[in-house]
Structure formats: structure tokens, C-alpha cells
């Protein structure tokens, strides 16, 4: 559905994209990971026909973004990382305006708008002014806007950025729903577990190049080892620390004095990690929380790019 | 063509424009200036003439001065309405979303222009009752009135197009505003300045060569593209003949004005339409 061929974009001497090659199949949710300045937004802007590449091309459903930008616009829904809204428009007017921009007849728009608002859980905000909505609501409204012309492909640049945990969950559920509808979704995010839950495939971009691409399990496998784990105990902190020190896969134990909180790095497999927890419970330690820290972009990025550099 | 003129951008712009207090305050400012001027004019001519009469010739004078004043207001208001049309969308981060829709660049630019033009026409129409006072006293033909409004329309569309072009080319509204007002200063004052310089040089040349007839097309061009000069020459045949005699050209200045402003409009809109979106094919 999406094919990027040797895409290069230069801004003066700076190469934002350096011969990017990538393929995303139909109905796939593809997660795009990369640090700030890695080239994610540039790639998304080219796919959204907002930016012309210096060389190379990208094809969406067989249509070239360079040669047939107007055709591409019909089949994509684009949500930028930062966007504004028209202050004096109401929610339904906002969607109606964009529906009209895509040439959808007024009668169809009147049917579509309530359905889309229901999909993004904004039915009760239909007659509110858009600028009065919370950031999470605006993000969902923008997503509804992306869907108004029923595009085959959605390009979502950091759709969950700046949202509170509840709003993130809501956004994630909507994207899962869209995935079930068969949409091909290109999404960027800094939070790996978030992508892992939503995406079928992940690609890591660094300095304008795709370093790795594969299914979520394959990428996660590259990150095995060096898991940061936090354990919370009611009492007997020293006994717990001693217990952990005996495990060969545990290192870098740190204790938060007075909080009963112990953090350490675990290098064993998931099964070995499970055994550690089982043994701790059997040993009668007063553990009431055992958490693996979320791997954020920094961890993924550092782990993968470090590997790439040493190759 | 119908799709280009009646497009969603125009309808949205009109809706947004009439929902803001700024539009009504702009209209109020415009009408206030006209009211102050017309009442002041009537007061001066009826009180100090000792007769209490208002002669048709004085009515014509009032019409002339109001016409120049209204042209000045159009030139003052048009940049304010158009110079931020694209750059504001860019600053508010709404432009990128609009550009990914299937609206063509022409539809977006024309929609923006027509919404501003519609508001300026509303202002002119709102000022009509004040204008109609002139008709109470006679001295002005309806044809003169219609001609005047036609040239207002030509001028405001041209200025609007310049404003939108600059707004498309610049990233910030403030820069766009300054550049557009700079263009207005050029058209309204600098052209007149160039005309007087040209005229002085011409007179100097004739003084040195007494047997030569004046002929200065460039000087005439500067005068012809000045909106104030156009209004004055349309209203007063004496001033018009003085102008043509001074440069030795009898070609009607309104034709030069019309051609110049239509070309400016076409050029500005073409540039704005081409530069609105990334040019995929030529940027490679």
C-alpha cells in the first residue's frame, strides 16, 4: 500500500532523509520510531504531499506523491504532530468544512458527521466551539477529520503526544478500531509499549535512514536484556536486596530509602524473570508490586542505533 | 469555474469573518470616518456661507472629496483583510491540514480573496446612505457614481490579490502586513512623487528646448496608475486635460489604470496559486 523508494530530502547541506526505502502492506499498522530530527516528520510531510523530495519517490496505493499529489490526497488522511483549529467554528461545522473540502455532498456530510463524532466519542460536543475542547478532544476530532473522506491510508504523526494517560488509552482504542476497519495506518510515537500494542510492524529511523524494520516481536527481541525492574515491598528491604543479589541475572540494585522501592537491571529471559518473581513470593518476601519500566524511545533508539553503529 | 468561486474555503471564511467582533469594529471605524467627514463638510458649507444653501457645485465637491477619501479607506482596509489570510493559517497551524485536502490551490486562494472582497463590498454598500446625501443636493450623475464604484472594485481586488500573494510568500503575518502596506504607499504616494519628478524634468527639458512639444510616457504612466489621480481625473475633465497636456499624451489614463490593475491581479493570483503548495515536479 505504501512504498517509499530512495527518498532523499535536503535542507541546504542538511540531509533530513537519506535514501529512505520502506514498504508497508495493506491493512498494516506501521509504527515509525526515531528521535527528534531523525526524519520522521519530513517523511510524513512528503507522504502527505506537503513537501517535495529532493530525489526519490513514494507511492501510496500505486499513486506517486510527486507526479499525482492530488490523487494521493484523496486516499490519505493526515494528522500532523502540531495542528491548530479555527476558533470560531463549532465541532460539527469543523467536520462539515473539511467534508466539503473533500467534495462530499452536503446530504452525505449530515449523515457522516454524527457517525464520526460517535466513533471518536465526541457526540456530546457536537455544538461546542472547537477551541473550547481539551487537547485530547481536539486530537480525537482531528482524527475524525482525517476519516471524513474514508481514506485507505492514515498518516498519524505523534497522535498521542501531550495527552494524559486516559486520553492516550482512548486514542489507542480508536486506532485499534480503525485497524479493525482495515485501514493502513502509518503512525509515529515515542513510547514503545504504545506502538507495540497497536502496531503490526515497526521501523526505526535515524539520520534519515531506516535502520531496521520488522514485526513488533522481532524488534522487541532485539531489546531483550537490560530490562529495568522496580519492586515495591512493605518491609524487609534488606532481605529482598539480599535475595535479588543471589540471582545471576540481576545487577545495579538501587534502594529508595524509606519508600520500600528497589530498582535493578535484569538480563535474563522473560521466563527467567517469571521464575524470579515466583521464587520471591515463595520465599515469603512482602512484595506488593513488581513492574517492568516502560521502554521509551530513548531505550529503543539507543539499543538499536548502538547496534547499527558497531556493525 | 463555479467550483473555484463557490468553494468551502470562501463559505468558511465568510462565516468566521462575520463571527468576529473585529469585522464589526472595522465597519464601524470606516463608517465613523465617513460620517465625521460628511457632517463636517455639510456644517462648514451651510453655516459659513451665511445663506444656509448647499449648491450643486458644492455637492459635487463633496462627492469628489468623499470619493477620494473612500478610495483611501479601501486602500487602507484591503491590506488589513488580506495580508494575513494565508500567513495566519500558517501561524495557527491550520494550513497544512487544508493543503492535504483535495481543494485546489486556486480554490483556496480565490476563496480567501473573495471573502475579503465580499467584506470590502459590504463596507462600500454600508457607506451608500452617506453617499446618497450627495444625491439630495444634485450635481452628480448616477453614471459617475457607478464608474466610481467600478474602479473601487478593480482596485480592491488588485490590492487584495497583492496582499494574498505576499501572505503566501512570507511566513509571518507582520512581515506580510508591512510589505503589503509598503506596496500601498508605493501605489498611492511614490507613484505621484515619480510623476512630479518626471514632470519637473520634462519642464526643464522644454525650457532648454522651447520648440519641442512635451512627450513623457513614463511620467504619464506613474500618474495613470495612481488611484487618487484616477478618481480626480474621472471627476474633473479640467484636471484630466491638464494632466494629458502636461505629458503630451491624450490616451485615456483610465485604460492604463484598468490594464495595470488587471495585470497586477492576474500576476499576484498566479504567483500565490503556484507558491501555496510545494511544487512537486520542479523542486526535484
UniProtKB/TrEMBL annotation, chain A:
The keyword Transcription regulation is annotated on this UniProt entry: no
Recorded superkingdom: Bacteria
Entry's Gene Ontology molecular function annotations: ATP binding; ATP hydrolysis activity
A Pfam family the protein falls into: ABC_tran
Entry keyword set: ATP-binding, Nucleotide-binding, Transport
Regions that span the bilayer: none
Location of the ABC transporter domain: 2-232
PROSITE patterns according to UniProt: ABC_TRANSPORTER_2
InterPro entries tied to this protein: AAA+_ATPase, ABC_transporter-like_ATP-bd, DrrA1/2-like_C, P-loop_NTPase
SMART domains, A to Z: AAA
PANTHER family the UniProt entry points to: ABC TRANSPORTER, ABC TRANSPORTER, ATP-BINDING PROTEIN
Record-stated family: Belongs to the ABC transporter superfamily.
Protein name: ABC transporter ATP-binding protein
Species assigned in the record: Ureibacillus terrenus
Lineage, opening ranks: Bacteria, Bacillati, Bacillota, Bacilli, Bacillales
From TrEMBL, chain B:
GO molecular function: ABC-type transporter activity
Signal peptide bounds: none
UniProtKB keywords: Membrane, Transmembrane, Transmembrane helix
Organism: Ureibacillus terrenus
PANTHER family for the chain: ABC TRANSPORTER PERMEASE (PTHR43471)
A cellular component term, taken from the record's GO annotations: plasma membrane
TM spans (from-to): 27-48, 60-83, 113-137, 143-166, 178-197, 254-273
Designated name of the protein: ABC transporter permease subunit
Amino acid at each position: 500500500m505504501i512504498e517509499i523508494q530512495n527518498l532523499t530530502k535536503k535542507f541546504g547541506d542538511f540531509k533530513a532523509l537519506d535514501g529512505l526505502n520502506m514498504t508497508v502492506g495493506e491493512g498494516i499498522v506501521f509504527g515509525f520510531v526515531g528521535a527528534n530530527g531523525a526524519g520522521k516528520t519530513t517523511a510524513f510531510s512528503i507522504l502527505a504531499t506537503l513537501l517535495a523530495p529532493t530525489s526519490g519517490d513514494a507511492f501510496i496505493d500505486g499513486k506517486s506523491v510527486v507526479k499525482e499529489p492530488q490523487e494521493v490526497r484523496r486516499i490519505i488522511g493526515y494528522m500532523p504532530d502540531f495542528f491548530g483549529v479555527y476558533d470560531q467554528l463549532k465541532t460539527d461545522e469543523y467536520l462539515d468544512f473539511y467534508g466539503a473540502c473533500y467534495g462530499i455532498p452536503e446530504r452525505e456530510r449530515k449523515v457522516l458527521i454524527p457517525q464520526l463524532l460517535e466513533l471518536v466519542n465526541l457526540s456530546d460536543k457536537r455544538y461546542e466551539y472547537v477551541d473550547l475542547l481539551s487537547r485530547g478532544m481536539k486530537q480525537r476530532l482531528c482524527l475524525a477529520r482525517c476519516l471524513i473522506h474514508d481514506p485507505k491510508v492514515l498518516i498519524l504523526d505523534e497522535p498521542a503526544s501531550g495527552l494524559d494517560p486516559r486520553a492516550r488509552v482512548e486514542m489507542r482504542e480508536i486506532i485499534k478500531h480503525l485497524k479493525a476497519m482495515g485501514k493502513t495506518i502509518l503512525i509515529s510515537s515515542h513510547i514503545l509499549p504504545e506502538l507495540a500494542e497497536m502496531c503490526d510492524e515497526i521501523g526505526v529511523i535515524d539520520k534519515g535512514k531506516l535502520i531496521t524494520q520488522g514485526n513488533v516481536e522481532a524488534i522487541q527481541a532485539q531489546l531483550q536484556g537490560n530490562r529495568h525492574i522496580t519492586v515495591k515491598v512493605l518491609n524487609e528491604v534488606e532481605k529482598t536486596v539480599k535475595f535479588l543479589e543471589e540471582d545471576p541475572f540481576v545487577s545495579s540494585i538501587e534502594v529508595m530509602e524509606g519508600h520500600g522501592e528497589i530498582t535493578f537491571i535484569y538480563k535474563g529471559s522473560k521466563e527467567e524473570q517469571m521464575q524470579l518473581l515466583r521464587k520471591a513470593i515463595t520465599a515469603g518476601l512482602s512484595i506488593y508490586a513488581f513492574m517492568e519500566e516502560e521502554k521509551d524511545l530513548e531505550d529503543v533508539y539507543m539499543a538499536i542505533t548502538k547496534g547499527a553503529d558497531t556493525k | 469555474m463555479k467550483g473555484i468561486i463557490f468553494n468551502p474555503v470562501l463559505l468558511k471564511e465568510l462565516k468566521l469573518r462575520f463571527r468576529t467582533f473585529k469585522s464589526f469594529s472595522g465597519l464601524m471605524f470606516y463608517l465613523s470616518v465617513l460620517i465625521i467627514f460628511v457632517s463636517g463638510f455639510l456644517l462648514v458649507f451651510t453655516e459659513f456661507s451665511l445663506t444656509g444653501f448647499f449648491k450643486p457645485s458644492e455637492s459635487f465637491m463633496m462627492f469628489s472629496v468623499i470619493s477620494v477619501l473612500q478610495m483611501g479607506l479601501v486602500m487602507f482596509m484591503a491590506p488589513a483583510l488580506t495580508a494575513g489570510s494565508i500567513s495566519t493559517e500558517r501561524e495557527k497551524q491550520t494550513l497544512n491540514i487544508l493543503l492535504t485536502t483535495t481543494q485546489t490551490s486556486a480554490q483556496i486562494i480565490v476563496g480567501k480573496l473573495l471573502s475579503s472582497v465580499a467584506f470590502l463590498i459590504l463596507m462600500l454598500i454600508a457607506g451608500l446612505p452617506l453617499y446618497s446625501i450627495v444625491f439630495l443636493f444634485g450635481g452628480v450623475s448616477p453614471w459617475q457614481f457607478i464608474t466610481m464604484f467600478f474602479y473601487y472594485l478593480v482596485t480592491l481586488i488588485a490590492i487584495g490579490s497583492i496582499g494574498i500573494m505576499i501572505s503566501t510568500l512570507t511566513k509571518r503575518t507582520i512581515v506580510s502586513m508591512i510589505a503589503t502596506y509598503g506596496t500601498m504607499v508605493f501605489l498611492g504616494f511614490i507613484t505621484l512623487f515619480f510623476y512630479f519628478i518626471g514632470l519637473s524634468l520634462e519642464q526643464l527639458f522644454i525650457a532648454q528646448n522651447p520648440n519641442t512639444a512635451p512627450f513623457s510616457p513614463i511620467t504619464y504612466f506613474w500618474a495613470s496608475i495612481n488611484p487618487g489621480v484616477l478618481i480626480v481625473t474621472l471627476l474633473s475633465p479640467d484636471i484630466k486635460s491638464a494632466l494629458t497636456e502636461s505629458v503630451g499624451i491624450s490616451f485615456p489614463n483610465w485604460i492604463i489604470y484598468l490594464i495595470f490593475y488587471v495585470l497586477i491581479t492576474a500576476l499576484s493570483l498566479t504567483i500565490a496559486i503556484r507558491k501555496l503548495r510545494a511544487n512537486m515536479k520542479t523542486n526535484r
